[in-house]
Amino acid sequence: MELKRSTGPLSRFRRLLVVSAAVLGLVSGSVTLAQAAEPADLHGPDPTEESVTAPRGPFEVDEESVSRLSVTGFGGGTIYYPTDTTDVLFSAVSISPGYTGTQDSIAWLGPRLASQGFVVFTIDTNSTSDQPDSRARQLQASLDYLTNDSSVKDLIDPARLGVMGHSMGGGGSLKAALDNPALKAVVPLAPWHTTKDFSGVGAPTLVIGAQNDTVAPVSRHSKPFYESLPDDPGKAYLELAGASHFAPNRDNTTIAKFSTSWLKRFLDDDTRYDQFLCPPPEGDPAISDYQSTCPY
């Protein structure tokens, strides 16, 4: 884990404390370097059930429209980002819509996730009929734009990037992770792909399926995807009870809670969010199935 994540007097003071604590720990044997470094990477207050299920998190959010005419490799979109940029770098995630969908179908995720402390890019694809592998390439192109050319590039830690997507966009997120081992987290939503083996994915992946999905039935898509993923460094399968394929197109507290927790845990290395992922939730009427390699 890098200690130099941000600049400014407060950051330098934090790093001095981190290094001092690490040195003392090496002497006393009571503190590891990882434990000492962790506080410098935390974004926001200690999470609670109320904070991860709230419609908005602790960060104020602004947004910027990106025209398809100003980019290459994807169809533009909207960037949502925290406005409190003092002394911190944020992880970033790009999200692809599904077949025939536009960014409007996933727009609710933008401000909801960004308010938890992420830069979020909800993208349009080149064509609404683009297949999953094309969407994978477009997700990567959008991340390249975010980190190299966007107006918010200086807010982003380029070492902490993830992808999400709905339907064919979800299948695209899996393919993107297969193609780019540098990605740190993946969250496919009711994913669809003709490929069923994603054993080569190295990023922690949360597959969210829908119990009553007739477009991408979980028995032929979400579950085989999950089962093919390696146990290490971590995976989970969450099934939305009674939900259809289009559940991710509407504001959904369960999707938001677990997506936020997964991204916080694996993009930000924030172990405070383990409590929402491990042990698996029990007795939640919104969840019909939950499996994972807990503990991570």
UniProtKB/TrEMBL annotation:
Species: Saccharopolyspora karakumensis
Signal peptide (from-to): 1-36
One GO MF term attached to the UniProt entry: carboxylic ester hydrolase activity
Family named by the database record: Belongs to the AB hydrolase superfamily.
Family annotation (InterPro entries): AB_hydrolase_fold, FrsA_esterase, PET_hydrolase/cutinase-like
Domain PET hydrolase/cutinase-like, residue spans: 40-295
Region (Disordered): 38-59
Keywords attached to this entry: Hydrolase, Signal
Gene3D superfamilies, alphabetized: alpha/beta hydrolase
Superkingdom assignment: Bacteria
Descriptive protein name: Alpha/beta hydrolase
Keyword Signal: yes
